[in-house]
Amino acid sequence: MFTREEILLVGSLTVTCYSLMVSEPLISTSELRLGRRPTVSLIATLRDIVDQVRSKANAGFDTGLTDIWSRALAYHLLPGTSELNFFSDDESTHGAGVLYSDLQKIPRFTQKQMPFPLIVVNARPPLFEDAPPGTNLPLESTVYEVTPFEFGSYDPHLAAFVDVKYLGTELNELKPKSSDSCVTNFDQADFVAGSSSSLFFALLYDSRRKLNGIEAKAADFLFKALNNLLKGISTRADDVGVVPNPFRGLGVGQYEDANSPSLELIDGGSNLEQLPLRPLLMKPRGVEVIVTLDGSSDNENDFPTLLGLIQTQRHEGVVAGVAQPLPLLPSEEIAVRDQLNLRPTFFGCDPSSVPEWPLVISLPNAPPADGSLPVTNTDTFKLTYTDRHSELFLDQAFGTATSGFVPGQLGADPEWAQCLQCAVVDRQRFKHQPIIPRSQQCQKCFSRYCYDPANPPRAEDLKVVGRQFKFTDPDPQKGFFERNKKTIIIVASVVGVVLLLGILTCIFCFIKRRARAKIDQVTYSRLRGDVPLPKVVGLKA
Q1: Per-residue pLDDT tens digits for 53-103
Q2: How far apart (Å, rounded) are the C-alpha atoms in residues 128 and 114?
Q3: Is the CB of residue 108 less than 8 Å from the CB of residue 114?
Q4: Considering only CA atoms, which of 184, 39, 203 is closest in space to residue 100?
């Protein structure tokens, strides 16, 4: 399962496969850069995005900031946009019309040659918009999943799905409001990605006219700007992705949105399940191995503490009977104490003869194994990255995922690739009778990477050492002078030359005026007779 950033990546890679189907080229790294375009071009692009969202609002659908966010993401992640046409007003669609349900048409998808995309979203419960920022959704909140086939939830208080192709259709007890028509084309890929990564609800809470983390005067100014931006497009809630509720009338008394006309979709980690594993644990899926890539910002250094994984286990009571349990996990405090958040860990290695839970391979974002300075532990709300930081980020994340760890020393584990293979195929052993024993290599790997809270290893045997924790910005934001150094030098030089010329001109004029005044004084004295006139020497005839 995926965090917010990984959801965007999954969505991008998935619809890139769609782009292969329609014979569009893959988006290169250079095409994702905005370049150095005039501000007026960016403003025009934002105006175009707002106009696109306004057309959705004019069609009778609720829209807001999440729709703008979704369309902005499309310019970066979906087919149809390049560096050349990013700011142009040509006929480029910029990903509009790429539907999640259309992924079923991809040959690679039908032939099961690509991953099955499963995106998780939460819905803000009724009246929850009045809660202050930082309030997490309650444990019993419904977790929805979006696939190329359907939208819905396995959670027992709902346990219903609808065809994602008809998402946007008003239903009551699963019957359409209109007997002769259904809505299609609502399942835009950018809207799915945008809703599942929408954090505006955590920043804004309109009822108190405040903006989280910003002082009152600045917040008031920003609210006025947002209100101007949202005129004509915000028809229900500014800070969520609004979908007509296809489950209205179901689960009355149990399902929190049974009487709601719309679902207010928000970030899938809003209930602290930063690794929303719940859909993967549903028994009909029979998942044997789960790999978690945890990029959460849980501690003071913005590294994970395995809270997302632990929080999923806390929710097991909500889906009891329909989901597999997770293997026994340590508390967050013990996970940090035993440094499980700094290295790969296998949980649930030794079940009974019939595995009761999947094996979980935990790969947390952690400081580099070679002891270098970390660049991946960025703040959740950091939205811009330089090319240099992006490249270093990806390189470091790849290194973290492929390094493993060596107890008591820096550096990568040369056997990590083999250990990962051992973990992925381990559950297959239980399908044979008698159970196939692990190989010597796999047993060695499991001794290093498995963790059983009931019988934890000694801390000194698996100690992680030499790591750097403090985030180091590879491109620190420079001050005003540093950012405008060349311009300031040029302007200062020009001003200096002008001033020098002005001073020299003034000195020249002063000297000239003094000389003139002296000449005038002499002339005046001669005319009065105070000074004899000079003799005039003439030629004799």
Answers
A1: 888 888 889 888 888 888 888 888 888 887 777 777 666 788 888 999 999
A2: 38
A3: yes
A4: 184
